[in-house]
Amino acid sequence: xxxxxxxxxxxxxxxxxxxxxxxxxxxxxxxxxxxxxxxxxxxxxxxxxxxxxxxxxxxxxxxxxxxxxxxxxxxxxxxxxxxxxxxxxxxxxxxxxxxxxxxxxxxxxxxxxxxxxxxxxxxxxxxxxxxxxxxxxxxxxxxxxxxxxxxxxxxxxxxxxxxxxxxxxxxxxxxxxxxxxxxxxxxxxxxxxxxxxxxxxxxxxxxxxxxxxxxxxxxxxxxxxxxxxxxxxxxxxxxxxxxxxxxxxxxxxxxxxxxxxxxxxxxxxxxxxxxxxxxxxxxxxxxxxxxxxxxxxxxxxxxxxxxxxxxxxxxxxxxxxxxxxxxxxxxxxxxxxxxxxxxxxxxxxxxxxxxxxxxxxxxxxxxxxxxxxxxxxxxxxxxxxxxxxxxxxxxxxxxxxxxxxxxxxxxxxxxxxxxxxxxxxxxxxxxxxxxxxxxxxxxxxxxxxxxxxxxxxxxxxxxxxxxxxxxxxxxxxxxxxxxxxxxxxxxxxxxxxxxxxxxxxxxxxxxxxxxxxxxxxxxxx
Amino acid sequence: xxxxxxxxxxxxxxxxxxxxxxxxxxxxxxxxxxxxxxxxxxxxxxxxxxxxxxxxxxxxxxxxxxxxxxxxxxxxxxxxxxxxxxxxxxxxxxxxxxxxxxxxxxxxxxxxxxxxxxxxxxxxxxxxxxxxxxxxxxxxxxxxxxxxxxxxxxxxxxxxxxxxxxxxxxxxxxxxxxxxxxxxxxxxxxxxxxxxxxxxxxxxxxxxxxxxxxxxxxxxxxxxxxxxxxxxxxxxxxxxxxxxxxxxxxxxxxxxxxxxxxxxxxxxxxxxxxxxxxxx
Lengths: 525, 280
Prior knowledge:
The complex is a heterodimer of chains A (525) and B (280). Chain A is mostly helical and 525 residues long. Among the domains of chain A are: 12-141, no CATH class; 283-360, no CATH class; 445-523, no CATH class. Helix content of chain A is 17%, strand content 4%. Chain A is built from 18 helices and six strands. Chain A has helices at residues 3-14, 32-35, 44-50, 52-60, 75-78, 109-112, 115-118, 127-130, 192-195, 269-272, 325-329, 338-341, 344-348, 365-368, 419-423, 443-446, 496-499, 520-523, and strands at residues 198-201, 204-207, 349-350, 355-356, 502-505, 508-511. In chain A, the strands form three sheets. Chain A has a two-stranded antiparallel sheet with strand order 1-2. A two-stranded antiparallel sheet of chain A has the order 3-4. The radius of gyration of chain A is 63 Å and the shape is rod-shaped. The model of chain A is unreliable at 1-9 (pLDDT under 50). Chain B has two domains: 3-150 and 243-273, no CATH class; 153-238. Chain B has helices at 3-33, 36-39, 45-48, 53-79, 88-109, 119-141, 153-169, 176-181, 191-212, 216-273. The two termini of chain B are 40 Å apart. The chains are: A mainly alpha (525), B mainly alpha (280). The A-B interface holds A 1, 5, 8-18, 32, 36-41, 80, 83-84, 86-88, 91 and B 36-37, 39-41, 50, 113, 116-121, 124, 255, 259, 263, 266-267, 270, 273-276.
């Protein structure tokens, strides 16, 4: 057996395996006692003599190695050797490691992330420990030792004053009430970025949290009123919403583009601001932007509907109109005569729907007035049911009819009496017993025969034998000379009644004109 | 020892080896299959590791078995220790048993870390074991007395003649078998050629015996005698060669054993020096 083989054999028994790469400088039979202590296996002190970083932590009573779980253990219990160069002597169950034993409890997302997300050399401040490959040492508890300072030194370095461990955004511990600008109302609902906008600083994303001007609303909010209402938005608005559901106290509507006038001043805001938000834009160019067109487009001409203000005023309700005689007379139907005294509703309210109508209500008399004559008058005298053939607007009673155009011109008293005296035979009837056509011209047609049959049967004599139309039914046409008893002497001066006295004729008392006996003694006693 | 007791004895020894090997393989399979770099973090590392309660125990027990086997056989061979009580042949078998089981236990003690420089000790042990197996083969090629003493050529020939006489004493139909047995041409040539020819030769003789003897028991009895005769003839033919080989074998087997002994001593001393004392 060659000496080389012998030495290898012996060495083989001395070293139970290759040292890990980290301890490779301790390979060799002369280095055994660098780690091993004769008779005592592995003594911690030898480990700590080299691993000053652990020794330091133990002296400081900090870190996992100073925890109760480790303090009474031998280093070799956890960190073995002689398992080959690839052996990782610091391997441990990272998934189930109780980080609290290190003195730094993992909370929130720190539980989720990989160990090496934090335990990496760039996060280690101590340059000596940083050199150690794959070490878990050298960390400190300051957030910024691992995390980038997003706020770029504009806020405190103690991140957990505001942030939690579950997520950076939002910062759950941050209480805006502790800030100079206390959030009220809708400000609590607003995304932080609305006020603390994202920007760039030093080539990195940056969110502005300090140095923000907030003394006036317009520091953040656009003044949509362009200064019209002043700079203090709170005069009208509040923090809950820019929407105004109630009229702000002392709100001056005159400052808006639509100053309130007339009855608008008394109207409840909601009548116009129907959305519940008084600040929602309203169109107000025309009345009908708010008001319903009562007339349902009656006045549309050439596709254009005139605005209400053509006839109505803000000062009074819609039942008042500016449309007067002058305007009416400028229309196709000028008001004349009795029409001028007629209330508007008489013509413009339709009984069918009890609504006002102003268009297409007709212009002829019978469109409004009842045509009581209907077919009682011939077309000759009542063409197209045109009342104006006889009537005028002054009065229905004022009939302007030339009876001379008929077959029976009116003479005498006939010219003075009301038409209805002859033409309305029975006013108790619905049509008044109108008779205009074929009316008999005999006097007795209209006049009562009070004489009975003294002068013969009716029709056998004419009233005009004695009476005329020119006088009061006086028998001025009668000439006593033509009788059997001509009047002369004192008889001509005697009142008729002295001789013609009432007596019973044809069953009733009548004045007797046909005196059969006219001897003197018949009258004189 | 009655043959069947001897067979049972051998069977028990083999069974122990098989059982121990199987048992340790089974309970430690997961650990031993784990890569060396990962074993420290295996749940049973402290149990199976070479310095663990179980692993260290295997090493100590294995070493003791080997030590006992070597010392016992060496004393028996050199100084006749126990030879009045147990035949050397059986002690050799027990030596083989202990020196097989011991290395197996040590094999598990090493947790199969026998690569590289560290392996020298282990391979020394393997060399001793393998050389033991070879030695055992050579050993049986050299005819011996019941006590295991090497027979002289004269003694061997006498034994051979006794066998032939036995065959002749059988009332065979004719002396064709005897005649055939006299033909030793099958033993010529190299060892392997000779073994091949012997197989062929035995098969032809078997046919002849089966043709002449109808009784099966008698057939087996004659065949055993024929085999013994051929084996003896073969060993006589190779005796000189095997005796030389056996001398050379001692040169190999013993030094390996010595190396292993020295290494074990160093290993134990170093282990104790560093404070690894198992249960003591």
